[in-house]
Specification:
Layout (H helix, E strand, L loop, with lengths): L1 H27 L7 H30 L11
Length: 76
């Protein structure tokens, strides 16, 4: 579980501020004004979901390309 969270942590870092601003302004103010617990749970679910989707659709392909750019060690 923690290993997978480490894999998607960059997505969490990238998306958290953008989603927090949108989520707070558009959704929380309209619907969940009084209940902060529901706000936190939904926020964590949305951020984690976006990070997983981002990892599977974007980051995973770049990780596969990584082997093409490794340094080649030569013998002396």
């Amino acid at each position: 579980m923690l290993h997978y969270l480490g894999k998607i942590s960059f997505g969490i870092y990238i998306y958290h501020n953008m989603i927090l601003n949108f989520y707070t302004k558009e959704i929380i103010i309209k619907y969940f004004l009084g209940n902060i617990f529901i706000f936190e749970i939904l926020y964590l679910v949305i951020i984690t979901s976006m990070s997983i989707i981002s990892y599977k659709l974007i980051v995973k392909h770049f990780i596969k390309l990584k082997k093409n750019f490794e340094l080649i060690k030569t013998a002396r």
